[in-house]
Design brief:
The complex is a heterodimer of chains A (191) and B (168). With 191 residues, chain A is mostly beta strands. Chain A is built from two helices and 13 strands, in the order H-H-E-E-E-E-E-E-E-E-E-E-E-E-E. In chain A, strands 1, 4, 5, 6, 7, 8, 9, 10 and 13 form a nine-stranded antiparallel sheet that branches. In chain A, 25% of the residues are buried. The termini of chain B are close together. Chain B is built from nine helices and no strands. In chain B, helix 6 packs antiparallel against helix 7 and helix 6 packs across helix 8. Chain B has a domain of 115 residues. The chains are: A mainly beta (191), B mainly alpha (168). Chains A and B meet through loops of A and helix 1 of B.
Chain lengths: 191, 168
């Protein structure tokens, strides 16, 4: 959020802010305003305008441009919360409104033997990033500027690889009630 | 699209044309993500490459795609194995594509393959054979790699112009 006010270039969630920097940001009335649906406009390959309607319940998976050195150009994430906030910052006289998407990140399959793409005739495979208390590992959750979302994406659970409860402890906010306390190990990105 | 559905363990269907192009690269409406997705332009199955080049040949047989780029890594690799192979530009312009080339591309891929993919490779090899019988000259194996090699890091704009539109 602070990065957006200061107009820094988004590089993923790695850019740290100091506590002093964070303290300059004040949430008006200490409120988050929840939303049900996010609609993303995008340009299709043939220059037509398209819109994806996304929500945490039924169309939750998104893709955005990758900001690391991986050969694969996209990042994938599941929307787990949509809200807007109104904040005050010394850089602006008026309160600022921001739309924010809370996501749970998918990571690329760590198995380096798995190759995807047209040449190998395999779909890209992703799985949830494992949640750890350790700050140095890649975060399982993040906040995303909706402007960075390219469009929704269809992820096919890899039923063959089964489910696991090791990626995240039981959570009411990150999973749907219907999912129980388990996640699929892998998903295939439908393309 | 030249997917061989029967050899896949899951059945893919395209989400829509736009999503297909997001992963294919080169969509005119995808200008904002163009730079990041250009790497997809070299990610082609070998049958795909064949059909793309053949289309170009059909449209414009004078097109000379031999001198586009220097040798790729994979090509050097192939040359070490088979030093007897020469580049014959005359044949290239006449538009003959042949069995040898197919086999070489296949070999190159197989080196990169991981073990789990061996089985479907074999399957698709069988499918190739009736096709390749029709065509018949030698010694052009590496030209194909020059035009659209799977390991080429970059594709010239010319390459995209020549091959891209035919492929799409």
């Amino acid at each position: 959020m602070l990065g957006r006010i200061l107009e820094r270039e988004y590089q993923g969630d790695d850019t740290p802010f100091t506590d002093e920097e964070r303290a300059t940001l004040k949430f008006v009335n200490n409120r988050l305003y929840l939303h049900k649906v996010l609609r993303i406009n995008y340009t299709s390959y043939d220059m037509k305008r398209e819109q994806d309607s996304l929500n945490p319940r039924t169309h939750a998976n998104i893709m955005m441009l990758s900001h690391d050195d991986d050969r694969h150009p996209y990042w994938y994430a599941r929307i787990i919360g949509l809200f807007h906030v109104v904040v005050r910052h010394p850089s602006s006289i008026n309160p600022l409104k921001f739309d924010v998407v809370r996501v749970r990140w998918y990571g690329r399959d760590p198995d380096s033997n798995y190759q995807s793409g047209w040449r190998t005739r395999r779909l890209p495979r992703v799985g949830f990033v494992e949640y750890t208390e350790d700050d140095s590992s890649s975060p399982a959750f993040g906040f995303v500027n909706p402007e960075h979302i390219i469009r929704g994406v269809h992820l096919i659970p890899a039923f063959h690889h089964g489910v696991t409860n090791e990626l995240l402890p039981p959570s009411n906010s990150a999973r749907l009630p219907s999912e129980g306390d388990v996640d699929f190990n892998f998903f295939y990105v439908n393309m | 699209m030249l997917w061989n559905f029967s050899s896949l363990k899951y059945f893919p269907s395209f989400v829509d044309r736009d999503m297909g192009m997001r992963f294919r690269g080169g969509g005119v409406g995808h200008k904002s993500t163009r730079e990041a997705t250009d790497s997809f332009l070299t990610d082609r199955h070998r049958l795909d490459i064949h059909s793309a080049v053949d289309n170009v040949e059909a449209e414009d047989s004078d097109e000379d795609s031999c001198d586009e780029e220097g040798p790729s890594n994979e090509e050097e690799h192939l040359n070490e194995e088979q030093p007897a192979v020469d580049v014959d530009e005359q044949n290239m312009e006449e538009g003959d594509y042949d069995t040898d080339r197919r086999d070489e591309v296949e070999e190159g891929e197989r080196e990169n393959d991981s073990g789990e993919e061996e089985d479907w490779e074999d399957e698709s090899e069988l499918e190739d054979e009736p096709e390749s019988d029709e065509e018949g000259s030698d010694e052009e194996g590496d030209l194909r790699d020059d035009a659209l090699g799977p390991d080429d890091g970059e594709v010239d704009e010319d390459d995209i112009a020549i091959l891209g539109f035919a492929a799409f």
